[in-house]
Write a structure and sequence with these properties.
The protein has 5 helices and 8 strands, in the order αβαββαβαβββαβ. With about 160 residues, the protein is α/β, with parallel strands linked by helices. It has one domain: YbaK/aminoacyl-tRNA synthetase-associated domain (YbaK protein).
Length: about 160
């Protein structure tokens, strides 16, 4: 098992979340791929999008429903600064995950995180678990209660 997947499993246990990490036979890198692999609607997929703040240089995380495209103006408004996509190497170094496997928890260092409230319309959602073919299923209300997570409604 990879260190990043093990870190997700450890974070799930530490936070008391009951979720099993599953390794899928095919990739789950995109929301559409993940929905096919998990047998769910694309709106039940949690996209973990990592940005860099233009003023602070800090990494920011948006947890977005798989059926949405992020409204950048809205995202910049909630973070209070301009945003740009974070460099993949920096994402790996600072979160411990490669793009396509960024989990909503288990990061090396905490990040300012906002979660799309549309995810709460579901009983369960699927999120990346540290590798491009690893996922876990969880009640989205539990994700919304994670430390450093605030909510927004995607416009």
């Amino acid at each position: 098992m990879s260190k990043s997947v093990a870190r997700v499993e450890a974070a799930l246990a530490e936070l008391g979340l009951i979720a099993e990490v599953l390794r899928m036979p095919e990739t789950t890198r995109s929301a559409a791929d993940a929905a096919r692999a998990c047998g769910c609607d694309v709106s039940q997929i949690v996209k973990s999008l990592v940005f860099e703040g233009a003023d602070t240089g800090e990494l920011k995380l948006v947890l977005l429903g798989g059926h949405h495209e992020l409204d950048m103006a809205q995202a910049e408004g909630i973070f209070g600064e301009g945003l740009k996509r974070a460099d993949p190497k920096r994402v790996r170094n600072e979160t411990g995950f490669a793009i396509g496997g960024v989990a909503p928890l288990g990061h090396i260092a905490p990040m300012d995180t906002w979660m799309d409230e549309s995810l709460l319309a579901h009983d369960k959602v699927w999120a990346a678990a540290g590798a491009p073919n690893a996922v876990f299923c969880v009640d989205p209300a539990q994700l919304a209660e994670l430390p450093n997570v605030r909510r927004f409604l995607q416009a």
